[in-house]
Amino acid sequence: MGIELKCFATLREYLPENGDDYPVEPGETIRSLVAKLGIPEKDVTITFINALRSDLDSEIKDGDRVGLFPPVGGG
Questions:
Q1: Any idea what the CATH number is for the domain that residue 15 is in?
Q2: Second label for 66, Cα 20 to 30 Å away, from 10, 25, 48, 75?
Q3: In a domain, 74, yes or no
């Protein structure tokens, strides 16, 4: 069992094919996941675990739903 990973907007290009069941190691954090996916850390500004806002040092585990968002602009 892995995590359900969603990458939004400009981060979508980094979403692996197995994003619906992406394997994670014990003790993995969002920061280590971002590095493993090859996403520049500065490009990830909003993160969620199980629909709750989290930070890059939050730990993730099997069964979690993780969302990664780039900087959001508007106008």
A1: 3.10.20.30
A2: 75
A3: no
CA distance 60 to 72: 23
pLDDT tens digits along 11-65: 999 999 999 999 999 999 999 999 999 999 999 999 999 999 999 999 999 999 9
The one-letter code for the residue type at 40 is P
Rounded CA separation 44/74 (Å):
17
For residue 9, how many other CB atoms are within 10 A of its CB?
A: 12
Domain count for the chain, please give it: 1
Query: CA 67 to CA 31: how far, in whole Å?
Result: 13
Three-state secondary structure of the chain = CCEEEEECHHHHHHCCCCHHHECCCCCCEHHHHHHHHCCCHHHCCEEEECCEEECCCCECCCCCEEEEECCCCCC
